[in-house]
Amino acid sequence: MDCRILDQGTLENAEHLIVRSEMFRHDMNFSNLLMKISNQKVQINRISLNTVADSMDTWLEHGRPVGTSWLFQIRQVAGEEPSRYIQILRRNAQVIEWDRRSIKVSMGQSSIISVSYGDSIFHDNGYRREIWIVKMEVLHR
C-alpha cells in the first residue's frame, strides 16, 4: 500500500477507520505511520503487542485529542498478555488509577489516556487463533 493514502481526504473524514496491519507489514516505521492517522475512531486488526505499546508511548509523549478511541486486535503470543505493558506504564507514568486489565494515565492537566482489555477471544477468520482486544482512548480529566 502506498502510505500517501493516509493523507487522502476520504480517510481523514471517515467516522470510523478500520486498518489491517498486513498493509504495513513491510514498513519498518509502522508506529510512525499510525501516528499519521488523524481519525478519532480507529480499529486496527492483527497488530503486535509491541506496536500497541509503542502507540501508548507516542500518545503519552505527543498527545491525541479528547475523544480519540482506538481498538486494537492483538495476536496472542504464548505467555504474553497486555497486563505486562500496564505494569510497565504503572512504573513509568503518572497513574491515576489501575488494575490488572486497565490503567488511566495523565496526559496533562486536561486529559487522560485509558487503556483496557478483556479476556482473549477465539477468532476464526481462517487462521483460528486467539486475540486480545485492547481499547485505548483519550478522556477529559
Structure description:
- The chain has four helices and eight strands.
- With 141 residues, it is an alpha+beta fold.
- The chain has one domain.
- Helix 2 crosses helix 3.
- The radius of gyration is 15 Å and the shape is globular.
- This is F-box associated domain-containing protein.
User: Please, how many domains?
Assistant: 1
* CA-based gyration radius: 15 Å
The run of helices and strands is HEHEHEHEEEEE
Tell me the total number of β-strands.
Answer: 8
What is the average per-residue confidence, as pLDDT, rounded to a whole number?
78
How does the major sheet shape up?
8 strands, mixed
Estimate the global geometry from the Cα principal axes: globular
Q: What fraction strand?
A: 35-45%
Q: What is the quaternary state of this protein?
A: single chain
Q: How far do the termini sit from each other?
A: 38 Å
Strand pairing plus helix content: what structural class? alpha+beta
Summarize the structure.
The chain is an alpha+beta fold and 141 residues long. The protein has one domain. The protein has four helices and eight strands; from the N terminus they run H-E-H-E-H-E-H-E-E-E-E-E.
List the helices and strands and how they pair.
Elements: H1 9-12, E1 17-20, H2 30-36, E2 41-47, H3 49-62, E3 69-75, H4 83-92, E4 95-99, E5 102-106, E6 111-117, E7 121-123, E8 129-140
Parallel strand pairs: 1-2, 2-3
Antiparallel strand pairs: 3-8, 4-5, 5-6, 6-8, 7-8
Pfam family, one: DUF3557
Protein name: F-box associated domain-containing protein
Organism: Caenorhabditis nigoni
